[in-house]
């Protein structure tokens, strides 16, 4: 595989979720092992650790459990990121915790993925954590959901048990807004239906997990209609020969397409200009699209700074200070109605006050609990915010980047919430 072909390969980001001991880390270990995505010294270290534990087989979960407390307890606490590639695609995996108290870590790991992999233990079926993580995946607008019924070897590879779990999940999922859900019976420990088809489940006619990863369509996951370019930095290389007068505006294209020669509008000033050049690193390009990081040069000298946004004159984001949002609360201290927090939205930072809690979600039943304003860690609620300056945003369902924000406790600098803007 040449360096150029690797860089040009499509990238799939996915996360794992599910209840405790459903086998998330083992599954990722199996994927890395069977796809030759680990080094020999890593495998040897895991083999020796497994022998010390008295295990007959290699404990593949150790490949992702990086913290000492994780290895000792056999659980995942922090989000573990792993990278591997096949001849067809590159992959970034976010292995997220299963415990309820680490739900905030699951939200963090799943916030940017194309696909969420939710594991269900074939012995236990659909549990509360399965529902919680599924609802969060729906709330985060993750385009694709794959339900892996794991540990099929422990139920005798029973087709009846698999179908029972699938029907239970389908009944629950009918209440959520998810476009694409697929189901696969697997055994992460034994390798059934991970990379190779299982001879123990010939009744299953669908794809293996790796085949699904390599072929699932993700090109349409990006919003290529609403052009949005939040400014992160203004480049002024006065001392560089040939660039004494260069003024470039750098950032990441979060949606839409920008082309050289197009008219654009700068927000919040409302001034219009024309794109005279676009550079990706040191290479000039004719167009920029998500998720490219570029610098743009404009025809006019306009006062632009970090937190401003470039858009199209005939397609602008909404602007407002009164925000209606769904929020996952991370803070150890409960949410305070009337409390003031720092709010970070794309590259902009403002202050915000929580005006009201509309309702809290009952994750297990997917019901709204009204008149309950006691929002503690890992609770999910709908609330109203008031910001000190207008935000330029799109509804989260329309644009996952410009529709999201985080709240920060100014006293501790801790992130206390992740929000999805409704309108």
Question: How would you characterize this protein structure?
Answer:
- The chain has 423 residues and is α+β, with helices and mostly antiparallel strands.
- The chain has 3 domains: 3-221, Rossmann fold, CATH 3.40.50.300; 229-311, Translation factors (Elongation Factor Tu (Ef-tu), domain 3); 318-421, Translation factors (Elongation Factor Tu (Ef-tu), domain 3).
- The chain contains 8 helices and 23 strands.
- The strands form 4 sheets. Strands 7, 8, 9, 11, 12, 13, 15 and 16 form an 8-stranded antiparallel beta sheet that branches. A 6-stranded mixed beta sheet has the order 2-3-1-4-5-6, with helices on both faces.
- Mean pLDDT is 85; it is low at 66-78.
What is the element layout, followed by pairings?
Layout: H1 3-8, E1 11-18, H2 24-34, H3 40-52, H4 68-73, E2 80-85, E3 90-95, H5 103-110, E4 115-121, H6 128-139, E5 144-150, H7 159-173, E6 180-185, H8 209-215, E7 229-230, E8 233-235, E9 248-252, E10 258-259, E11 263-267, E12 272-280, E13 283-285, E14 287-288, E15 293-298, E16 309-311, E17 318-329, E18 340-345, E19 348-362, E20 367-370, E21 380-393, E22 404-408, E23 415-421
Parallel strand pairs: 1-3, 1-4, 4-5, 5-6
Antiparallel strand pairs: 2-3, 7-16, 8-9, 9-15, 10-14, 11-12, 11-16, 12-13, 12-15, 17-21, 17-23, 18-19, 18-22, 19-20, 19-21, 22-23
């Amino acid at each position: 595989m040449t360096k150029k072909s690797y860089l040009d390969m499509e990238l799939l980001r996915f996360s794992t979720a599910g209840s405790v001991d459903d086998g998330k880390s083992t599954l990722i270990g199996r994927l890395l092992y069977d796809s030759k995505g680990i080094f020999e010294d890593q495998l040897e270290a895991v083999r020796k650790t497994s022998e010390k534990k008295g295990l007959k087989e290699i404990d593949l979960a150790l490949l992702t459990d990086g913290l000492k407390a994780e290895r000792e307890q056999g659980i995942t606490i922090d989000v573990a990121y792993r990278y591997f590639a096949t001849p067809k695609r590159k992959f970034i995996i976010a292995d997220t915790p299963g415990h309820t108290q680490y739900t905030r870590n699951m939200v963090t790991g799943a916030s940017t993925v194309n696909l969420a992999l939710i594991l269900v233990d074939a012995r236990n079926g659909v549990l509360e954590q399965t529902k919680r993580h599924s609802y969060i995946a729906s709330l985060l607008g993750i385009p694709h959901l794959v339900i892996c019924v794991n540990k099929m070897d422990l139920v005798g590879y029973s087709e009846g048990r698999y179908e029972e779990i699938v029907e239970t999940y389908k009944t629950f999922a009918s209440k959520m807004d998810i476009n694409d859900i697929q189901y696969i019976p697997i055994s992460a420990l034994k390798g059934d239906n991970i990379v190779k088809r299982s001879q123990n489940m010939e009744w299953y006619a669908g794809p293996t997990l790796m085949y699904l990863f390599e072929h699932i369509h993700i090109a349409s996951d990006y919003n290529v209609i609403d052009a949005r370019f939040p400014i992160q930095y203004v480049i002024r290389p006065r001392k560089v020969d040939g660039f004494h007068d260069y003024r470039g505006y750098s950032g990441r294209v979060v949606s839409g397409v920008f082309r050289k020669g197009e008219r654009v509008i700068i927000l919040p000033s409302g001034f219009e200009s024309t794109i005279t050049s676009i550079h990706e690193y040191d290479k000039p390009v004719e167009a920029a699209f998500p998720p490219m990081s570029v610098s743009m040069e404009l025809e006019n000298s306009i006062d632009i700074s970090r937190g401003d946004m470039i858009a199209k004159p005939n397609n602008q984001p909404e602007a407002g200070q009164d925000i209606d949002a769904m929020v996952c609360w991370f803070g150890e201290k409960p949410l305070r109605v009337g409390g003031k927090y720092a709010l970070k939205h794309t590259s902009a930072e403002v202050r915000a006050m929580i005006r009201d809690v509309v309702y809290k979600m009952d994750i297990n039943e997917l019901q709204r609990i009204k008149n309950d304003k006691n929002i503690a860690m890992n609770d999910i609620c709908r609330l109203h915010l008031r910001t000190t300056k207008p935000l330029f945003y799109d509804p989260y369902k329309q644009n996952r980047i410009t529709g999201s924000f985080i709240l920060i406790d100014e006293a501790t600098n801790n992130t206390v919430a992740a929000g999805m803007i409704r309108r």
